[in-house]
């Protein structure tokens, strides 16, 4: 593992306990990037509820510089570290996918469903989410037999998309009784490949995703707080 000196990534601690990182798609993106670049980084867990000094997380501190809080700037700084191992895909279609390509609206549609308080509109919002998931599934199927968006190894767009799909899979099921349709084989195989469930020997790609993924309990507890609804798993420990 390359040692780049004093690099610290401040991330939210779990809302269940202070010993594991919380449910934050941006934090997971950046942690995945560091694993894939094989760069040593200090991860500092911050209690976002009690902290008076750091209210905007994640934040990246390089050496003696002030912490950087803007996600786009953090992403760019990580890319500059170990520049011989860029994480942007060589394929612009893949780089643009998560912003304006097929299924780029999945997380937005999921948020609309998750935060909806009118049960009468849930089915319409589920249909909107399915439409976005279907577009993503079609794209992923078109890329067979490669494992990930840009090929056999994770790239930056994967670091953006996979944490979002993890939250969709966990939260939509618990709060809205919604499962990603079984016939969306492309999405399921994509998640399985990142989780090491494809029967292959775990590699740095699987490590990057699994080591940085919060538990289902942590994800559900965080979302219950954001949505201001009871935690159905009843495992909340912190006030």
Automatic annotation (TrEMBL):
<dbReference type="GO" id="GO:0005737">
    <property type="term" value="C:cytoplasm"/>
</dbReference>
<dbReference type="Pfam" id="PF22441">
    <property type="entry name" value="CLIC-like_N"/>
</dbReference>
<dbReference type="GO" id="GO:0016020">
    <property type="term" value="C:membrane"/>
</dbReference>
<keyword id="KW-0472">Membrane</keyword>
<feature type="domain" description="CLIC N-terminal">
    <location>
        <begin position="6"/>
        <end position="79"/>
    </location>
</feature>
<keyword id="KW-0812">Transmembrane</keyword>
<keyword id="KW-1133">Transmembrane helix</keyword>
<protein>
    <recommendedName>
        <fullName>CLIC N-terminal domain-containing protein</fullName>
    </recommendedName>
</protein>
<comment type="similarity">
    <text>Belongs to the chloride channel CLIC family.</text>
</comment>
<dbReference type="InterPro" id="IPR053823">
    <property type="entry name" value="CLIC_N"/>
</dbReference>
<dbReference type="InterPro" id="IPR036282">
    <property type="entry name" value="Glutathione-S-Trfase_C_sf"/>
</dbReference>
<dbReference type="GO" id="GO:0005254">
    <property type="term" value="F:chloride channel activity"/>
</dbReference>
């Amino acid at each position: 593992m390359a040692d780049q000196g004093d690099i610290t990534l401040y991330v939210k601690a779990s809302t269940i306990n202070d010993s594991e990182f919380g449910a934050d798609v941006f934090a997971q993106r950046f942690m995945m990037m560091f694993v894939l670049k094989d760069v040593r980084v200090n991860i500092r867990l911050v209690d976002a509820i009690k902290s008076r000094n750091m209210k905007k997380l994640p934040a990246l501190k390089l050496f003696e510089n002030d912490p950087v809080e803007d996600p786009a700037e953090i992403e760019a700084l990580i890319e500059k570290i170990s520049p011989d191992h860029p994480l942007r895909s060589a394929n612009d279609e893949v780089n643009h996918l998560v912003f304006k390509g097929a299924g780029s609206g999945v997380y937005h549609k999921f948020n609309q469903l998750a935060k909806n308080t009118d049960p009468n509109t849930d089915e319409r919002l589920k249909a909107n989410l399915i439409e976005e998931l279907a577009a993503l599934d079609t794209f992923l199927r078109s890329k067979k037999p490669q494992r990930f968006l840009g090929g056999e190894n994770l790239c930056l767009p994967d670091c953006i998309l996979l944490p979002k799909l993890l939250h969709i899979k966990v939260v939509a099921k618990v709060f809205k009784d919604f499962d990603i349709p079984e016939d969306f084989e492309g999405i399921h195989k994509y998640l399985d490949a990142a989780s090491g469930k494809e029967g292959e020997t775990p590699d740095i790609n699987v490590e990057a995703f699994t080591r940085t993924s919060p538990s289902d309990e942590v994800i559900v507890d965080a979302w219950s707080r954001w949505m201001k609804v009871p935690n159905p798993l009843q495992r909340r420990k912190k006030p």
